Prior knowledge:
The structure holds two protein chains of two kinds. By secondary structure, chain A is α+β, with helices and mostly antiparallel strands. Chain A contains 30 helices and 20 strands.
Amino acid sequence: MQRLTRWIAAHPLTCMAVVLLLSLLAFVTVYDLHDGRLRLKIDPTIERLLPEKGDDRAVFDRARETFGDSDAVLVAVALDEVFTPDGIARIDELTRRFGELPGVRQASSLANVPNPLADGDMLEISTFGAQARENPERVKDFPAQIAANPIYRDALVSKDGHTVAFSISLGELSEEDFRKQDYTGKIRALAVEVGGSDQVWITGGPVIKAATVDALLDTLAFTLPAVLGLIVIMLLLVSRSVYGMLAGAATVLISLLWTMAAAVLLDIPINLVTAIVPPLLLTLGLSYAVHMQADYYAVRESSPEARVQHVLSKVGPGLFLSGATTVAGFLALMPQALPAIQQFAGLSALGVTFGMLLTLIFLPSALRLQRQNTVRRPLGERFFLVQARRLAVFDLRWRNWIIGIALLTVPIDLYFASRIHVGTEYIKSFHEDAEARRDFEHINQAFNGASIVSILIETHVNDALTDPELIGQVESLQHWLRRQPEVGSVVSYVDHLKLINQSLNEGDPAYYAVPRDAAAVKQLLVFGGSAEIKRAIDSRFRSALLTVRINVDSSAQIQDLIQRVEERLGELKPPLNASLTGSPVLATRAVNAITSGQISSLALASFAIWVMLSFMFTSPRAALLAMLPNLLPVLLYFGILGITGISLNPTTSMIASIVLGIAVDDTIHFLARFNADARAKGNETAAVKSALASILRPVTFTVLSLCIGFLVFTGSELKNQVQFGVLASFTLFVAWFADILLTPALGSKLRIVTLWDLLRLDLGQSPQHTIPLLSGLSLRQARVFALMSKMEKLHEGGQLIRQGDLSRDIYVVVDGTLEAWIDRGGERKTLATLGRGAVIGEAGYFGQRRTASVDAVTPARVLRFDSQDLERLRLRYPRIAAIIFRNLNRVQAERIARTTAMLQ
Amino acid sequence: MIRMLAGIILAAAPLLAAAQGAPATVSAAKPLVDCMRANIPSSVQVKEVELISRDRTGGERQLRGRLYATNDKDRVKAMLKIGSPPDLAGAAYLMKEGSKSDEIYVYVPALNKVRRVTGGNMDGPLWGTDLSYNDLKQVQNAFYDPNAKLEGKAVLDGTPVQILQFAPQADQASRYTSIRAWVEPKSCMALKAEFYEGQQVVRKRFSGKAADLKQSGPHWYLADMVVADLKEGTQTRIKVTGVAADKTLADRLFNPATFYVGN
């Protein structure tokens, strides 16, 4: 690692050249120079966000394939007079004009639907429009005729009789074309021009989808420049150098370019979810650049190269781990069912990786080329140092209180989190004044429902649906549906069938019923059916579609309806197989899938981050403690959701995992410094102070950048985007607060300084070179052996070994001076004086009584190994044990040789 | 319903309605239009027809029947009686062209009732097929268009054709803005016709092959034809499996009261 750091510091031009070459390749990947266009696919359709596979989607596709798209555009126009010849003529003209719009398959309204009228053997099946033209006197009868027709009732004209509804079915017109060509605007303009009314409301799936996409693209158009502006300001503040700002901005932008190239290569489009990636990556990239630059400009070194090397070795590991945890946070979203979320997670993870690598390689190289080695006093350095000192004192003094209060918030947060409601309100994502919301709510109220769901009934048997018994089941289902409060109206082929029967039987209401035999049903459907019946039953009479107009919009209410309907559908007898479908149903199921994956995503992110921290601290327990300051803000976030009533929806459910991955960065920066300082100083309390002083300023600037970056989302027209920005910023702020209070408090209680750290502190960085017993071991082997021992302290004059005792312990002197002596007839005879690194007691280990006594001449510390330690070592690490035993032999041999020499 | 009958008539004898006579208009297209008119049978034909409708999922429904048609003093009378499937057998349709409006009757055997149908959505599908009464009327009346234009010559699937363009008459209340027909000059039969909606978007397409051009006496007809609704993604195939011309038919066949007989 150090070699790599040195290499980067020594070869800035090579590093930059490689990065720029890759960037050129990325640019060519993203931008087609030949055609002069972006290769990056932009797919702002909502349909792509829904699951591509699965039973739900298959049912939806089958229903659409057989009966056409149920997502019609609904238009409501308020007219001064509806039931007059002029009014009907105007409606007729407007319907015709709607139908002539390119891409429109069919437009229907009061004017062009048939009004069957029976008179003896005569059956008139002309439209309301035609009847009004032929005999204007008949218009006055229309309200009563509409009220008597269950298919038209409350669907063609509002209850107050002043607002007329138009249904526009689209043909081969894609969502994107509908939006790009502003069909909503065209329809509105036509309604105003032909209808002569300025009170026009337009809604329906295509309209709301187009409005959502427009709002998101507007958000993107606002957030990207805003975040770029933020990058410039923050980098200028931190580096106080135009060059530094440019280097930082270039780093962030290159990482975005690489990410977009990856999107092209992986065939990931910029859709409604992945559209968040660019501003998010810019924000995260900014935080990395700020962190790197804050340290770079503060380092005092003799040369730019030394400065780069210093800053990389100091900041590098923390930054690397920060990036890894953020990547883990994103990757935790991968198990989500929706491909759009997976694409978002994958692309974000790649982007963060690129950002982190570029910050570690490109940015220092670019800064190194600045050549000036001037050290700038970092912005606010003195202020932050003073505050850090105060904070450390406060944290250490009140650490028990801080930890206690933090733990106390857990049950409180859990209590409020239990009140979170899951779901989303599609139309209420728009601002109250937004046209899309206003129009939807008006039509929903005027016509008792503005959203359509469908029930697909399949039998897989030709003509099965002409069986009166099965028709009875469908009819019973319709009656049940009409009793549900969320349901405004239900129309099926049974309604058409009964109307045909009544019409062919002189209009007698007694014949508004299902014929008793299947042949009659089939004849009525074949010979009496109109164009509309194609939308209700297929040509082979084996599948049918019930069109259900619902007056609710929130996913929670729709989910409630779904559950009841599915239970009811389960009661249908074979061969009837029924499934609830439609865009609102698919969207609601997708919302539930995302939010139910919340717990697993969060657990996965936490586990991955814990594993990484465990490696960093070489202690799972320490890693668990490090997680606490980050899990608490996440818990608080869920508590806030419960208190404020904000629902757990696809947007808010992503925040926890993302913020956890980002917020843990600050903890890592603190703990990385704390870990190093504690081991270097051999004292955790002192390390808290130094670590806090070191990280408070950069971490605060980083969090400030991130919070402002996320707050940019508050400029969105969509409420859930605003919630994303506010809640993510808030949670990050709380995480920062926890990091400067709770993390130091917990750190001071951590005992991460190991015996090995102390040994290295006392005996140098490579004790195996200075202690004969450890000779020949690698650093790692020496550490394994050392961690099996116990440290013992001796006061001056204290006895370590008594001559004649039976004991098998071996000692290594860490510090202090000891004296080995024997008793010769009451006379103390000193054999040797032992200092740092000396091995004592090895003869006892081999079964001999202690041949001499050993006392401490000065206060001393020794490492003690007993026979059980060595036996455990022999079993678990035989290679290490072999070297240790060889060293023991060597020590013994030297001692025997020395003794022999003394005797001679 | 009965408008379907006109569809079958069109398929079996495409220019039957031209028997009403055409306005005296001189245009470059006139010789070809006259030749097409001359192709109309002057006597009654009886045709065995098959109507195969295919929905957008590929599901098919087949109707078979016999079409009786006669030209009575420049007024077409036509009756179609369904033979199969069995549960629809016996259903009958009758269309009588009138000077002001057409008379349409339908007989539904399950109800054992004949109903005279008036009005109706001229652009609506007939019997769940891709034909509408207006489509057929357009084809018929289009050939009366005094302003028909001969657009030129072309080759259609290896067959030389002449292209005619028609504009529906204002009083026809058609949804189409224009119709274009590819006419085989020897038989004077349209092998293809496209119905344009709005800004020259093809809504429906009639098509047949030159190999399916047949003769019954001196008159040509197309034995196999497909009508596709390009917006709906559905199509209907009309096959004429047998033609008998110059039959003398009892007038009772065109009397709605006789529908009850034999049921």
